[in-house]
Amino acid sequence: MKNLILDKYKLILWMVALPSLICAQELDEKALLQKQNKAQLFVAEGNESFQNEDFITAEMAYRKAMSQQSNTVAASYNLGNGFYKEGNFDEALYRHEQAAKDATSKTEKHKAFHNIGNILMQNQLCKEAVEAFKNALRNNPNDDETRYNLAMAKECAKHEKEQDEKDDEDSDDKKDEKDEKNQEQQDQDKKDEQGDDNEDKKDQGDEDKQDGNDKEDEEGKPDEDKDENDKGDDSDKQQQQPQPRPSTLNGQQIKNLLEALNDKESKVQEKINAEKQKGAKVKNEKDW
Question: Is position 288 within any domain?
């Protein structure tokens, strides 16, 4: 019984709250519709300014449209066309990629990818442009202009590939040439080092030869040191000879000895003179 009453109570609450939820949803849809209408009005203003070549005013209008409805494809697409006309390819590419993402119809996707391909060609990204034109043709296979642009993009990509291969070959050739020059330089450095070693050996040989000559000169020269040593040896020999011993005689004995020696010497001299008188020859010539 209690559960039955509780279920009835919940049912009453749900029936009371349901009109409020429906009313809130209607308000959200109404607000969304109002934003969509405002976005369309801003897009229309932007298109008018764009046709009058007033891109600054057109850009402001397109941005207002996206502030009301961020996924407004027309605003993104037309804003991208304006940047492309101004030469701002990076911003134009961003806006067209945004349009291609938000597009809901094949017609919108085809136009967005077609313009993306044109922008990539301007940036010389041929390979990427080929993919963009292919995506455009997937959404509209009957567009001859897209097909023609695809053929041009393929030709550009082929030339780009050949140029890259040539650059790689040139790079390899330059690398080989650089390696060859480095090897030649290493060989030359090695030869220079060997030449320096030989020169050092030659200089060392000359120094050794000069030292030998100096040694011979020293051996041929009188050895002053040797003379000095010889003198020293003589001095030593003299020192080694017996030295006269000091006399132990007194004064009177020395006097008597000297008188005896003088007397003996006088007698010897008298004898010699006598013998000279006997053997002397008579001179026949007269002295002048």
Answer: no
- Domain end point (choices 54, 74, 102): 102
Q: How many CB atoms lie within 10 A of CB 118?
A: 21
Angle at the Cα of 89 from the Cα atoms of 87 and 94, rounded to 5 degrees: 140
User: What stretches of the chain adopt beta strand conformation (E)?
Assistant: none
Radius of gyration of the chain (CA): 67
179-222 pLDDT, tens digit per residue, is: 778 887 887 877 777 766 666 666 665 565 565 555 555 555 54
Torsion of CA 16, 21, 22, 26, to 10 degrees: 150
Question: Which domain, by its residues, includes 45?
Answer: 33-102
Buried b (16+ CB within 10 A) or exposed e, 251-283: eeeeeeeeeeeeeeeeeeeeeeeeeeeeeeeee
Q: Which pTM does this prediction carry? A: 0.52
C-alpha–C-alpha distance, residues 229 and 218, integer Å:
17
